[in-house]
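thread: overnight batch results

M.L. [08:02]
morning all. the overnight job finished for the chain we discussed friday. pasting input first so we're all looking at the same thing
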Amino acid sequence: MNKCFQILTAAALASCVSACQPASDKSKKNEVMNVSEKQLVCQVAVDSVTQVGEGPIWDYKYQRLLWIDTQGSLFIYTPKDGKNREIKLDRMIGTVIPYKEDTVLVGLQDGVFEMALSSGKLKFIADPEGREAGNRYNDGKCDEMGRLWIGTMDKDCTPEKANFFVVNPDGSGEKVLERVTISNGVAWSPDGSKMYYQDTPTRNITAFDFDKNGSISNRQEIIHLPDTLGTPDGNTIDEEGMLWVANWDAACVTRWNPKTGELLQRIEVPALNVTALAFGGENLDELYITTASLYMPDDKAPNYPQAGKLFVVKPGVKGLKCNYWKQGK
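M.L. [08:03]
and the structure it wrote out:
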């Protein structure tokens, strides 16, 4: 897997990040103009360290954050009592989607399953790619109709070997994109007319016209990340329609205008490899941020002792409610 993440390695930030403080005004202005310079500080939400924290999603019906360690754990974090329950798995996991109080949808290395949180029991739903491909399922989210949009990746990140699928509530699946390397980040505009997607090593953020009947068209590469911002991992949308991106190998999350491609805001995170993010909390005004402790260069690891922890910050804007598998029915 180290080889896999070497593909993602970009030029690291020039300075060490500590205590999640933003970069200086001068360095920001040198990097890009018009970036918000609010002095925001991330807080540790869960103090334990994951190998590759990923996939946070706020289950607003039950006021909990579902998130994962791709190496084989599912977490249920409840801010009200500060508890973070861990469910150990016997295989890798790529995503988790809310469904019912005791049932979630998970994309595991060998397929898509419904999982009972009380027992860990799995119910097979789909494997649209098939095991002969040798890929595992990675990031994914549901649209407002309860369909799962999920991509795959090769364990060695072989370029253009993976694909992107839609899985319907009845379990049928269809390939919608091919020749993908690392499928990441799925989000929709507030009105549902656009879907945003990322094939991480390309550094591109892609927009599609989205048909609520379940198809995408009119592909547009709307943003290309510079070396200083690493590569795009997970993403999410806020209520103003702006796109938030987790910046792997850049110790930050960024906010973009998907219509103009303008970088609006940058928040520093005390972990080099930032993996995903999601709005949560009772008012959806808290941004939860997952990070990785694995796949970090040895010479940089001492600079990021909090890598792998779950962080939270209030960015000054609210997010949108998540979509549920099968609409939660």
